[in-house]
Write a structure and sequence with these properties.
317 residues; three-stranded antiparallel β-sheet; 14 strands; 18% strand; globular
């Protein structure tokens, strides 16, 4: 079956899934709407961690050991900065640094984040279209016993250790989806919209907090499918399950499904979670969700597409 596919994605897990999709689809059919709630300014540079992880993954440049940044990276800049007493808690490799310098230069010259992302994707040879969720700034912040923390302070500096009592997506309520995002979500050739296996609170939450995007999904005629980032109560990667428990949510695939209940038609879960109790309006399909190899990623992508292809919006399940 052919047609356009749109994926909502965060960084590492979402990027792995997108890579699988890019190998089973014509890359020209694939559009990725990337979370920018993690974006921040550091050392005077504009950093977009999730966009960069997606670009590096699709370009074959991602460091497979760390799961972020560029492979075969060097660290001369960070070593020199450390000797000067500079901030080194957020590590920028030399090749990665070049990307941030170029992004910052273009933004300062009047380009939008969408413009810059399209330029970088082209230069890196990325086939699928990668779109920031908005060109307006949205910043994820977390309330902890130490007060409100910016996302990167919580995630990198504090290593996700403080308990989270509340999450806020500053700027989301007034942020507008770009024309390209809205066009992708209203494409008459749309085969499916897939919410990737990314953290539902930190990666997908900021995207859905933008009213125009949430409304586009809620009024969607194409099938909307989500892929669970949690297996047997544990996050595949990152603090999703920990944060869900701290916020009084079900830290399970069922809990993720309930968070998406008003938006999705189908939910892909690992077989170990297939017998959980899910909302009755959501069709649940089981497929191995752990993506250790490229074959795993392709198979999960195929399962998500099959879930969409087997659905008609509003059909009984």
């Amino acid at each position: 079956m052919t047609g356009a596919v749109v994926v909502l994605s965060g960084g590492v897990g979402g990027a792995k899934f997108v890579l699988g999709l890019s190998r089973v689809l014509d890359p020209a059919q694939l559009t990725v709407i990337a979370n920018t709630g993690d974006d921040f300014e550091h050392l005077g540079l504009a950093i977009s961690p999730d966009i960069d992880t997606i670009l590096y993954t699709l370009a074959g440049l991602l460091d497979p050991e760390r799961g972020w940044g560029r492979r075969d990276e060097t660290w001369i800049f960070m070593e020199a900065l450390e000797r000067l007493g500079g901030e080194t808690w957020f590590r920028l490799g030399d090749g990665d640094l070049a990307l941030h310098v170029e992004r910052t230069r273009r933004l300062a010259g009047g380009a939008t984040l969408s413009d810059v992302t399209a330029h970088l994707a082209c230069r890196l040879g990325v086939g699928p279209r990668v779109l920031p969720m908005s060109d307006d700034p949205v910043r994820t912040r977390l309330r902890t016993p130490d007060g409100w923390l910016d996302f990167q302070d919580y995630f990198v500096r504090c290593r996700c250790e403080p308990p989270v009592h509340e999450i806020r997506y500053d700027g989301a309520d007034t942020a507008a989806p770009t024309a390209a995002v809205l066009a992708a979500l209203s494409d008459p050739r749309l085969r499916a919209i897939i919410i990737g296996p990314s953290n539902p609170l930190l990666s997908i939450g900021p995207i859905l907090a933008i009213p125009g995007i949430r409304a586009a999904l809620a009024n969607q005629s194409a099938p909307v499918v989500a892929v669970s980032p949690i297996i047997a109560g544990q996050a595949i990667k990152g603090p999703a399950a920990k944060m869900m428990r701290e916020l009084g949510l079900l830290s399970s695939a069922e809990g993720v499904a309930r968070g998406y209940e008003d938006l999705i038609d189908a939910f892909v879960v690992d077989p170990v979670d297939a017998k959980a109790t899910f909302p009755s309006a959501i069709r649940v399909l089981a497929a191995p969700a752990l993506m250790k190899t490229i074959g795993d990623r392709e198979r999960l992508a195929i399962a998500a597409l099959a879930a969409a292809d087997g659905l008609a919006r509003g059909a009984s399940v």
